[in-house]
Structures are given as C-alpha cells and as structure tokens.
Amino acid sequence: MKEKPPTVFVVDDDEAVRTSLRLLLKSVGLLVETFASAQEFLDQFDPDRAGCLVLDIRMPGMSGLELQMQLNDRHSIMPIVFITGHGDVPMAVEAMQAGAVDFIQKPFRDQDLIDRINRALEKDKAMRGELRERDEIRRRMSQLTPREREVLELVTQGKANKVIAGDLNVSQRTVEIHRARVMEKMGAASLAHLVRMVIEAQREN
Amino acid sequence: MSPSRQGGEFPSVAELELRAVLDAAVDAVIIIDSDGLIESFNRSAERLFGWSTAETVGRNVSMLMPEPFRSQHDGYMHHHMTTGERRIIGKGREVVAQRRDGTLFPVFLAVGRIEGLEPPRFVGFIHDVTDRKRAVEALRRERDRAQTYLDLAEVMLLALDARGTISLVNRKGCEILGWPEDELVGRNWFDTCLPAELRDDVRGMFAQFFEGNASPARYAEHEVITRSGERKLIAWRNVFLRDERGLVSGTLSSGEDITEQRRAIEALRQSEQLLRDAQAIANLGNYEFRVPGGQPYWSPQLYRILGMDPSRPPPDFGGYAEQCVHPDDRERFLREWEQLEGEGGHLDLEYRIRRPDSSIRDVHAIARMHREPDGALKVVGTLHDITERKRAEEEMRQTQDRLTQFSRLSTMGEMAAGLAHEINQPLTAITNYAQALQRLLAAPQGPDPADVQLALQQIAAQALRAGEVIRRLRSFVKNREARTEVIDPLQLITDLMTFAEPDTRINDIRLRIETAEPLPPVVCDPVQVQQVLLNLIRNAIDAMNEGGTTQREITIRAAREGEKAVEISVEDHGPGISQEVADNLGNPFFTTKPTGTGLGIAISRSILRAHGGRLSHRPTPGGGATVFFTLPIMPGSQT
Q1: A186, B116, B286, B575: most buried, per Cβ within 10 A?
Q2: Residue B441 belongs to what domain range?
Q3: Are residues A31 and A89 in the same domain?
Q4: A61 and A124 together in one domain
Q5: Would you state the pLDDT for residue B596?
Q6: Count of CB atoms within 10 A of residue B50's CB?
C-alpha cells in the first residue's frame, strides 16, 4: 500500500511565525501544513497520516500542552517538536515528560529546527514501520486454527514436541504437522523468529 | 456796780480797786462764802446770767446751775469744808451753766479758795465757751466730713509720720490692705505693708526725703503686701506734710490698686505678643486699608514677609502692586482685585512677590472687602508666605513622579515575559524568513520569485513590528513629567494592548475590550492612566492564576458614567477580593504577591486622585473582582 509522504504540521497562533516557518520548511523540501490554533489542527487530525507536529507551547485557547494531552488520549504516535519562548523551561520539561520528541527556543537557527524535525520524522517513520509489522503478525496469527494457536503458544514457551503431544493428548506426529503449518502460516524462518513475532504481537501499541 | 455790802459805810480804797477790777473783767467773777451763798457778782456775771447783783447776792450759787448739779452743789461744798479735798479748786473745768431765763450754756469754770479768812470764801471765774464750743464742733464736723471724703475716695489715702508710722489710712486703704483701721494706725508702714525685698529700699528713700537729700517721687509704683500675704501693685502719688515751721513732718500718699489694670494690660500685651509670634511662626501677615484714603495698616510680620522697612509707612494699594508684586504676576493680581467686589467681596489668590533685595516669595492672599457706612471700601486681608510649602509640594510632586516611574518600571518588569515574547515573535519570523531565503536562493532550481517577495516584505514588516513594541515600551517607561491630554478612552485602552496582550496570552487568558457606545474624549495623562490599567490587568492575571472560575477571560470595559465621567473597569474571574485584602488595598507596601512591591495600587490610587477620580472594586457577577475608576470627560464635549 502506497503511503503519502510525511507532512510537517505547524501550529502557531502568530501568523508571522507560522508563515515564516512554512516558507523555511518548504525551502528545505518539506511538506508543510499550518494551523492557527490547536483546535483547528485537532479538527482535521488523521492518525494515519505520517509526519510530525511543530507546536507553539503557549497559545490562547487550547495551549500546546493541552493539544499534546488530547493527542495522547487518542493514541497518536505523531512526534511533537515544541517551540518555546523565554522562560518556558518548566513547560518544556512537562512536555518532554508527556512524550514530546524535542523542544526548541525562539528564535532558532534553521538547521537546529530542521534537524529536530528530521529526527521526529524518522521516529515517526520507524514507529509507523513497527506498527505495520505488528499488524502483519497479528493478521497472520488470526489465520491460525484454534489447535494451531495452542501449538504456537506451547512451542513459544519452549516445550518439546513430545511434551506438547502429552499436554494436548495427541500423537507426536500430529504436533509436528501443526507446528509445520504454524511456521508456514506465520512465515517464520526459525523458532527464534517465531518467538520474536509472538512477543511483538503481544506489545501494546 | 451795786454795793456788795449792806450798811452805809463808804468803801475802802482796796474795795474800790477790787470792784473796778471785777467790773472790768471780761469773765464773770462770783465770790461765794463757805455755805455757797453769793457775796459778789460782777458786771460780766450779770450780763452772762441775766441776773442783777441785787438779785443774786445772798442767794445760793447753785441757782446758776441746772439740775442735777444744782441739788448736788451744797453736798460738794460741805464735803470740801469737812475734808479739805479739792475737786475743782485750782484746776478748772468745763461745766454747764443756766441763765435766768433757764437756758443752758457751756462755761469754763475756774475756782480759787481765798485763804486767810475763816471760814474761807471762794472766787469763781466763769468764761462763756459757747463760741469756742461752736468752733470746735464746726471743726469736728469739718474733720468728720473730711474723713467721709477720705473714706469715699476710691484710692487709698495714707499718712505717715517721719518714722514711717501710719497716722491715717482711709477705708479704701484698709480694704486694699485687709486690715481694720484701728489695728493699722500706729503700726510701722514699712514693716507691716511692704514686701520684705522692698522694705529697705523704700525706707532708705523715705529717710532721704526727710533729710532733704532727695526730692520726693510724686509718682511711684510698687507692690504692697496685704494682711493675708497677697501682693498688690499700687500706683502712688505722694505729697509732703509740713509743720508750722515749714519742715517736713510726714507724707500723705494716695495709692491706687492697679493690680487688675496691670494684669489686663499685661494680658493685652501678651495677646498682642502672641499674635505677633503666631504671625511670625505661620509667616502670616495682615493688613487693612480703606478706599479712598486712609493710611493702610501692615502688621510687623507683613513687613517681614515683604522685606520692607517697618519704620516706614506702608505704601498705598498702587504702590504695593508696583513695589511688591512680581512683575509677571502683577496683571493677574490687579485683575483679580478689580473683580473683588463682583465676587462677593472675597479674594483668594496665590501670586509671587518680589522683595527689595530681589528675592522672590510665593504668597497666598485672602482678603474681604466691605463697604463702610460712609461709603468707603474697607479691605482686611492676610498674606501667607507659602514659599516653603510650595517648595515642599514641588519636592513631594517630584518624589511622587519618581515613585510613579519606579512603579511603572516595576509593573513593566512583571510583564517582561510577555514583552519578551512580543519582541521574540517578530524576531523569530524575521530569522525564519532570512534563513528560508538563503536556502531558496542556494537551491539549484532557483527560488520562486513570489516566495522571495513574501519573505522580504515580511522581514521588513516584522522588523517594524518589533521596533514598534520597543518604541511603545520606551515611551511608557521613559522618565517623564506628568501632562494632561484630551484622548479617546478607547484609543487609550487599545494602545495599551501592546503590553497587556502578550502577558495575558502567555498566561492563557483572553483579553477583551468592550465599549457599549462611542465615548466622549477624556482629560487625563494617558501614560499614567495606562499605568493604572496595566497594573490592574497585571493584578487580574495574578488573581486568575491563583484560582477562581474556569472562565479565563479579562474584560476591559469603558462606559459613560453620568454626565461628566467615563468609567473604565477591569473585570476578572479570579477568586475575588477578600475582606482582608480589601481593608488593606492601597496601603503602601501591602502585597499579596511573593515578589510584589505593594506600590501598584497605592500609586494607582494617587494617580487617579490627581485625576479627580478614585479606585473602587465590586464583585464580578459569577465570581471574580471588578476594579474600576472614572476619568473626567472633557468639558463641553458632546457624544
């Protein structure tokens, strides 16, 4: 499935700052979308879109920090780079604790901001990759029969076929057939690969 | 002369001589025998008693006496004859005699016993003392009258002899000295009635008078001491009493008790002194003059205030305006005086005077004018030297200005975060545009001209934006004199938003301006009023950060308040103002903030007081506080 290229979402109430950021980021070839308020961004928020958020920490109405909370509630994985003013260190710390990638103090060198944005985009990409892999493992696991799932569970617990046959009260041969079907359906190259996939699948998003 | 003997014998020479002597005697001469029977009765006796010799000779002499002496006379005679005791003989005395017609008259009786005859006979010389008695009586009446005069006199009259013994003192004297007359007369004046410290001096002077070494002081004042020990001041007038040889025998003095009079004079003097001192202390002079004519009166302090020579008479009104009033104030001074009558005769004016030494003083003049019955105008007034007060006021004003300035800076300091943000924003934008341009220009495909255009235009605009913030900041915190302008209240508020808005924004508070109608211009010092407003907004922000409702909004409202004022209010939704805070609101250095100076409200209050308004507060409906004040509308503006 073909994805849209990652987008930098800029939320700042100051029009001059907003517009200048758009031009700056455009000049380095980034795709930019700007929003004058947190609410405006939230209204069109799509968790499937790749990219990162450049967010003014202080804004009238919904502040940057409040937007971060709202996105966390929605299980957004989008990395956030906060833009702070003088003396906003306490707020920046709070933002970092709530999962922000980074912050940068106004005014800033363009390269510093671009580096941070790139790191955020990489992180987004990586996280989206992981997310996609996990989804694939879960999809494959959903194709297993109940008996195959039982076998998968016991195999990944490190039990030998003979033990599994005893547990399930079937012949060792039957266990071997199920095990081969599980390896095939899950696309596992080895037992170690299979175990890693099961652990991955059990991770929370 | 009738014969005194019975018988026809011729009298002897001795008898004739005796008779001639007896008849020539002025006094009555009566000879009686030892039984009291008259033997001889001379011509003067006949004249005196109205009896003839013939009628009396041989009769008892008691016929010439009134009762009870008449009945007692025989007893006297007998007593004398038997005892030899002499009661009257050789002494003489005043007795009462009776004439033939029964009338009584005083006589002086001298009786002699004629020795050598047995039994003895007695001769009586009787002198009519009616006239003398009358004279004595007249003298006594005269003396009594004199005493009455003395006693009636409202002054003390006192006579002293050469030793200083009191020989006379009148009733007033007794009254003043507190002694009864009979106890005082005969006492030594100096020892009894003079205070110890004066005694020797006065006695010495007194002695010198008598020795003729000093002429008497006709007038003197000195204290006496009364019986009860009280001191009284007496004004004395003295004359000498001289005896028949012309020598000084004593003094007669009249003394007036001037204690009360002197006390009143002293009280008056003191009260005049008090007035002079009070005027000197207050630096307040007073004056009076009449128009037309009449010599103006200036109090000594007025001379001092004006630096004029007090030995010279004050100038008239025109002269005063010319010599004393500062040339720059003269026209105003004269104009005010001209209007004086029209203004109900009351003048209240401050102006400057120039002293002859060219120093300049500020004075406050208050005067009242009224018309006298004769049609002349009378002006009474005071002139108060207020130079020091003016100077103090000026210093006070400067201190107030500095404090106001300090407070403004301090408020600005509290707003620094917001202001830094406000300058940071355009700087950030400028930086971004510049860096974007660099990148766009460096790109191989070249920049989009529209982007370059946008970036350059925005760089300029944002630089101006930052500059404007700094300009306003400078004009706000600049050290400046207070000055009054006429300004649209809405303009005043919106101009302030440069400072207020960033601060509210970074505190996530919405700042709203609400005006219900077009408002008339107000008269005020815009920067000072903005300082007040900023302070109130700052307080509102702090209050809302403390707690209160969830409505994060501050509303600045301007509305017409009556005919003459516009009310400006700052409405917050914080926790409101507690009673404790309300009680202390505006006390200098009272603050609820950890880093507050406690001067904000105090200075806001004094600023508003200077604008003729005051700072008040009321609860915001739904929670919070509304602090408000009024500004005067420019007179004559209609909206």
Answers
A1: A186
A2: 413-632
A3: yes
A4: yes
A5: 62
A6: 14
Asked if residue A117 and residue A32 are part of one domain, the reply reads yes
Hey, of B422, B430, B439, B497, which one would you mutate to test binding to chain A, going by the most A CBs within 10 A of its CB?
Answer: B439
Range of the domain at A25: 7-128
**Looking at residue B3, what is its pLDDT?**
44
Residue B15's H or E segment, with its range, is helix B13-24
Choose the final residue of a domain: B128, B159, B188. Answer: B128
CA closest to B458 among chain A residues: A16
Inspect the interface and report whether the beta carbons of B425 and A106 lie closer than 8 Å. Answer: yes
pLDDT, tens digit, 9 for 90 and up, residues B490-523: 988 988 887 788 788 778 888 899 887 788 999 8
Give the chain B residue nearest A25 (alpha carbons).
B436
Distances (CA, A) of B223 to A8, B228, B255, B571: 116, 14, 11, 83
B195 & B124 share domain:
no
Answer whether B430 sits within 8 Å of A58, measured CB to CB: no
Tell me the pLDDT tens digit for each residue of B517-574. 788 999 888 888 888 898 888 888 888 888 777 788 999 999 988 888 899 999 999 8
Task: Give yes or no: residues B522 and B429 share one domain.
Answer: yes
Cβ–Cβ contact A112 with B under 8 A? no
Tokens of B193: 């009635």
Per residue in B304-331, pLDDT (tens digit) is 999 999 999 999 888 899 999 999 999 9
Nearest CA in chain B to A17: B429
Dist CA B488 CA B517 (whole Å): 12
Residue B616: name the closest of B590, B589, B577 by CA.
Answer: B577
Pairs of CB atoms within 8 A across A/B: 93
Residues B314, B301 contacting (CB under 8 angstroms): no
More confident residue, B219 or B139: B139
Residues A28 and A85 in one domain: yes
